[in-house]
Automatic annotation (TrEMBL):
The gene is ppk2_2. Residues 1-39 are annotated as: Disordered. SUPFAM superfamilies: P-loop containing nucleoside triphosphate hydrolases (SSF52540). It comes from the Bacteria. Residues 42-266 form the Polyphosphate kinase-2-related domain. Coiled coil: none annotated. Its EC number is 2.7.4.-. It comes from Nostocoides veronense. This is ADP/GDP-polyphosphate phosphotransferase.
Length: 296
């Protein structure tokens, strides 16, 4: 493979690298126009009912992954505020953290920077019966790091060469790799950033990196297009989730994730709770313990 040092510029005026323009965020549709608001976004009442159903299915999928001993990696990438964290939160809301766990790695240490690039991610890969959700992943190298100048052109080129082989190796070893890219338009990203900025309790979500990423929106589009050019492989293809409508994006992503498995209902049967076993033991006086003040 030749060195990937030529980047693709998006068409003039296109949203998120020109792959599509999502005016309302509605994808597909439920078939009932009453399920959508005037702006085309999904109504909360519809979302709540469907999310509850999907979360029940995620629990069933969790049991299936355990029983079958599957090893599953789900990668969530995309721009800041695109909705990656929101869908991860809904996936983990009712599942067990022992089976479905999140890997959100911090900035690498100096020691980690000296390691093979993929090394610090490998230790978070799943064992049998586990599903790991990567809230950003090794694709930091071809997206955030390249856009912000945190890696060299040689490091970037080497990543694009080696990443497809790394993922093929994971698949050959029995790991299921599913990759989602959450796509948000410039206007919607700006609206979300402005909302965070206006709310003191949410302002912590608006980092210097987010501001820089918004400034370099077009360059991030170039990074995403180049990443797809080299890493959208048949063994681990990219799935794009239009996310201008957060609620619809969450439902679409989770529905697609569930569709990737031919799972069955193997939830455990109702168990009989045991009675307390009596034994000769006298507990110390309650007054010797320090209790939290009863303010409520």
């Amino acid at each position: 493979m030749s060195r990937p040092d030529k980047h693709i510029a998006p068409p003039e005026g296109a949203d998120d690298a020109g792959e599509f323009v999502v005016a309302t965020g509605k994808v597909g549709g439920t078939g009932n126009p009453d399920d959508y608001k005037k702006d085309g976004r999904l109504k909360s009442t519809v979302y709540d009912v469907e999310m509850e159903r999907l979360q029940e299915q995620l629990v069933l999928l969790q049991y299936w992954i355990q029983k079958q001993g599957l090893k599953v990696v789900v990668i969530f990438e995309g721009r800041g505020s695109a909705g990656k964290g929101g869908v991860i939160k809904r996936i983990t809301e009712r599942t067990s953290p022992r089976t479905v766990r999140v890997a959100a790695l911090p900035t690498p240490t100096e020691r980690q920077k000296s390691q093979w690039y993929f090394q610090r991610y490998v230790e978070h890969l799943p064992a049998a019966g586990e599903m790991v959700l990567f809230d950003r992943s090794w694709y930091n190298r071809s997206n955030v790091e390249w856009v912000m100048g945190f890696c060299t052109e040689d490091e970037h080129a080497e990543f694009l060469r080696s990443c497809p082989e790394f993922e093929r190796m994971l698949v050959r070893s029995g790991i299921i790799v599913i990759k989602y890219w959450f796509s948000v338009s410039y206007d919607e990203q700006r609206r979300r950033f402005e909302a965070r900025n206006a709310e003191p309790l949410k302002r912590w979500k608006l980092s210097d990196m987010d501001l820089a990423e918004h400034e370099f929106y077009v360059k991030y589009s170039m990074a995403k297009d180049n990443t797809f050019q080299y890493t959208d492989i048949k063994q681990a293809p990219w799935y794009v989730v239009p996310s201008d409508d957060k609620k619809a994006a969450r439902l679409n992503c989770i529905s697609h994730l569930l569709s990737q498995f031919a799972y069955e209902d193997v939830a455990p049967e109702v168990v009989t709770l045991p009675e307390m076993k009596q034994m000769p033991y006298v507990r110390p006086p309650m007054g010797e313990q320090t209790f939290v003040d009863a303010r409520f």
